Amino acid sequence: MLDADRVAREVNAFYERHPYPPPVDDLERYRQSWNEDRRRAEAHLFWPDEPYREDRTILVAGCGTSQAAKHAMRWPRAKVVGIDVSATGIEQTERLRRKHGLDNLELRQLPVERASELGRTFDHVVCTGVLHHLPHPDTGLQALRDVLAPNGAMHLMVYAPYGRAGVYLLQDYCRRLGIGTTADEIEALAASLRALPPDHPLMPLLRSAPDFKDQAGLADALLHPQDRAYSVPQLFEFLRAGGLRFGRWLGQAAYLPQCGALASSAHLPLLSRLPVEEQYAAVELFRGSMVRHSVVAYRIERPDHERVDFKGDAWLDFVPLRAPDTVVVQERLQPGAAAVLINRHHTYTDLYLPITAQQKKLVDAIDGKRSIGEIAPEHALRQVARVLFEGLWWYDQVVFDLSRTRVEGRM
Ligand SMILES: C[S@@+](CC[C@H](N)C(=O)[O-])C[C@H]1O[C@@H](n2cnc3c(N)ncnc32)[C@H](O)[C@@H]1O
Q1: For ligand 1, atom 26: residue with the closest CA
Q2: What is the DSSP letter of 334?
Q3: Distance 17 CA to ligand 1 centre (A)
Q4: Which domain holds residue 338?
Q5: Which of 134, 139, 145, 295 has the largest CB neighbor count within 10 A?
Q6: For ligand 1, is residue 320 a contact (CB within 6 Å)?
Q7: Per-residue confidence at 409, pLDDT binned at 50, 70, 90?
Q8: Centroid of ligand 1 to alpha carbon of 392 (angstroms)
Q9: Domain check: are 353 and 390 in the same one?
């Protein structure tokens, strides 16, 4: 316990010195990036089976310098609470709250482990980049589960191990050298990294990850006093121990063997035979470079009415909404393709979906109001529509509003 206290104190001191993310002065551009369509798509990502609502209660746990303010801004009719152990993080968020008149935001300097002291439950609990820094992540997760409303949805992000192998090598290197977190030491570390061999496992992250572009990011990655990562099986175990069940990956295509390069591999039949959790675990090993996992999780006892399933006929009632940040590319196409669909959040370049001219007409007809059955009423189109919309779902091109679907047991 004493050791846990020491770790918690060190983590807290670390974030007081290196607030994360680097503080921002203004969120006006952020506000402009959110409109009604984006909010709807976000709501149905977390609650496919519930009608759209804007008035949910949201807890941003370990909110850092701006995340809670961002949630309050993008959901003006929601009530948002931000908690963090770091006084600096709370002060920075308070500054944004005042500047932008975010009356729907309440802030408390409180550790996630003591979330129950808020004395209420939340429809949405957001906790990204935090639990893997706790001395006892299980305790933190259970505390968050306890404040999740029965129908609530949790958004969690934790580190993944294989893509961070280079980070762990450098963390060990820095520990051995006794490198601390003063500005001078971080600057010297940044300079030394320029001498890293080009084939060092850290290089891909150094080249591409925005977190390595500034000192706070560098310190957060390489000099953190407490940092663990979860492989897919460890993550599922973590959720179960926390009384939660897996809902979906935020970006699911990267985990599905039927998406991207593996879809045309000789291993696809073997992968498809595995239970889905094991498919995800195998794909994580195959990809080898995942650095984080972002999931939607629900209380273990919540009925899984949100599950998207293309067996039977219920899918005809699904209402598709285009996922934000998807793009339709119409240049340099392979023969037979009328367009290629890309989700800009995907980091793997094999995750693109070519579609035919017939399929493109159906994609163009998505308006967030009509169901698939209304978009493709002709019986002859049913099979085309089923294959297309299931593919769009796998590739994170759409989310579904299932609230019009008749499911036994659902209100
Ligand atoms: C990497 S930052 C992530 C910030 C924010 N969630 C985001 O994604 O932008 C980690 C944050 O967790 C906070 N933190 C660490 N341990 C905590 C704890 N036990 N309870 C609450 N916050 C904690 C830190 O102070 C820091 O602000």
Answers
A1: 64
A2: P
A3: 13
A4: 314-401
A5: 134
A6: no
A7: very low
A8: 34
A9: yes
